[in-house]
Amino acid sequence: MTAVDHSLVKRFRQDAGDRIAEQRRLDQVNGVTPMSTEDERQYARAVIAQILEEYARSEINAGRTPLDAETEEQYAAAVHAALFGVGRLQPLLDDPEVENIDINGCDQVFVGYADGREVRGEPVAETDDELIELIQVLGAYSGLSSRPFDSANPQLDLRLPDGSRLSAVMDVARRPALSIRRARMGKVFISDLVGNGTLTPELGHFLACAVRARKNIMIAGATNAGKTTLLRALANEIPPHERLITVERALELGLDTFPDLHPNVVAFEERLPNSEGQGAISMAELVRRSLRMNPSRVIVGEVLGDEIVTMLNAMSQGNDGSLSTIHANSSSEVFNRISTYALQATERLPIEASQMLIAGAVNFVVFVQRRNGFQSGGRLQRSVTSVREVNGVDGRVLSSEVFAEAPDGRVVPHAPIACLEDLMAHGYRPSGTWG
């Protein structure tokens, strides 16, 4: 296979981009309906084919051998990926076994695989400036609004078209840095998580019934523990007739992309301020807005700040069945983490008030953990190791660990469930005995 000349791909991409932009401009001037995303992709293929034909003609006229058919196809795919994908990152994203991609400058590429291997990858750009340019293109075309990436906006978080989560920084490190966490399980169900060992059958059954019983559930865990995947699986237990509103910093959940499961979904994404510092719409504002839009349930992708007070108020005021994720190192730590966020919020809730709010809003905390060891299949194991039920408040949140890890590593029923009758009314049949 002939190696692709990336400087030539860059030239072709620039030419194709200019022609597509000119066609967009002409359509606007002539009042033509703008091309859909798929139409634009098809048009781009025709433009790329035309550019490659012109290049072949110029090579022949110069007395050089033109590209053969196979190499021309490679260039066409590379140019299309540069326009609509992520350029030289695309082969990594096309590999289903790739789990994480960390880039510390254009040529420092580290690829993490699902089986736990960490491999040094090929450079993804010729220079750091070209890497920044690639990230800027992604910021302009991913998400609901353009997100700048430059000296004035040196941080970027967004969701790639395949559902992967991208985080990038510049000017706060010696070289631009980029991390991509793959969304390897887009449409995922509780049965999938039982199958791969994340949940025991008993836990899967319990959580499915808790969702159907409209319990408010917070999923806790460390970075890359599998919180979002578990949230997607729980959300897929929600009946299709319910209207869901999701609120996220960067679109990641993608519940609105599966109309067969959830036909009535509105996905909100936080909007950052423009270069003049105007136009920002915060997570807290979006949670408030969601409550005015007739939701059956509000799902907050990740709680990281002052939106926590608004969200807890929503949970305690009749919007039962809410789901969210939060960073924490244990199920019991969640309550202190929430109090810390509430103390920093605009409302500046004192700890006692936030603990009362938690007790009135949250039913269960589910803790998911990423194991350092390997399971029999060779993959890193993520598993739910604790479920805590909120029982009330007495100066602090009172809770009981209804599922816990036994000494032999199994996750088993550990304490009686206070709302057992409610869960049983929605199909729950406990199979274990309390430890």
- Identify low-pLDDT runs: none
Element-by-element helix/strand order: HHHHEEEHEEEHHEHEEHEHEHHEEEEH
CATH topology of the largest domain: Rossmann fold
How much is the radius of gyration in Å? Answer: 25 Å
Based on CA inertia axes, which overall geometry fits? Answer: elongated
CATH architectural label of the largest domain = 3-Layer(aba) Sandwich
Proportion of residues in helical segments: 25-40%
- Tell me what portion of residues adopts beta-strand conformation: 15-25%
- Give the CA-CA distance, first to last residue: 61 Å
As an assembly, this protein is single chain
Strand count: 15
Describe the structure.
The chain folds into three domains: 85 residues; 88 residues, Beta-Lactamase (2-Layer Sandwich); 235 residues, Rossmann fold, CATH 3.40.50. By secondary structure, the protein is α/β, with parallel strands linked by helices. The chain has 13 helices and 15 strands. The longest helix is centred in the first third of the chain and has 25 residues. The model has no long low-confidence stretch (mean pLDDT 86).
In short:
The protein has 435 residues and is an alpha/beta fold. Helices cover 36% and strands 22% of the residues. The longest helix is centred in the first third of the chain and has 25 residues, at 37-61.
Please render the helix and strand layout as text:
Blueprint lengths: L5 H24 L7 H25 L7 H16 L5 H5 L3 E7 L4 E5 L4 E4 L6 H14 L13 E5 L5 E5 L7 E5 L8 H6 L5 H12 L4 E5 L5 H9 L8 E5 L16 E5 L13 H9 L5 E7 L3 H10 L6 E5 L6 H11 L6 H11 L2 E11 L5 E14 L3 E9 L5 E3 L6 H5 L11
